[in-house]
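Appendix B. Raw example, untouched.
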Amino acid sequence: MKKVGFIGTGVMGVSIVRHLLKKGYSVTVYNRTKSKAEPLIEEGARWAESPLELTNQSDIVFTMVGYPKDVEEVYYSEQGIFNGNVEGKVLIDLTTSTPSLAMKISETAKEKGAATLDAPVSGGDLGAEKGTLTIMVGGEEETFNQVKDILEVFSASMTLHGPSGSGQHTKAANQIMVAGTMTGITELMIYAKRAGLDLEKVSETVNGGAGRNWSLENYAPRIINDDYSPGFFVKHFIKDLGIALDEAERMGIDLPATRRAKELYDQLKDAGYGNDGTQSLVKLWWNK
């Protein structure tokens, strides 16, 4: 069985590593803050002092960090992945990052005899916990086929969308849709509350008809229970929407609804809620 390295034991990474450990994989982990990886070490994961050290101990290396700048640091810094022995290995970035960086990483990997996939995921903390994430993949089909079995450990579906960068483009499209459903659920809640309706009954009714969507199904109960814990951070959603809007501009298209959603989330972050979950958008109205 392949030795796995996993860099980034945040909200979703922790659950993914747990699934890999339960399936019997030997997993080495690295995180900038070691304390966040301690529970996994207690459950059987090994610890590496740097991405370089982790890479030397692994056959397959996963990265799942916060921002494109973090991805670049993990791969290209002095103690980064590309300064380790990557020959013959597969490097899989689960971070939502930029298509251009995915292509850059792919080119560097080829020069060093490694293969890469950009493979951002959707499904949030619940999808990670349940092992039902959706994975959007860019890269070579041969590489994709090599690692399907390990991707299946923590996903319900995975699709190869094209060459390097295609996974990131697909994730941008996904986040464009999520922006619409998150603003939709927020305005639904504000409207229903002002009308004096039972929010639980309204959300159940809407989810039984044409308005049904993942965001409403998973986040309405959290809003009703005043649970704004991060299944997905506001600050990271802003990053994702920024990537989508930048790519859209580069392609010469305008996305006014997505642009407005980002403006609202920027307001939310400026109000001090950047580390809350995306469902906290209702606080722009709830607190007034």
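End of appendix B.
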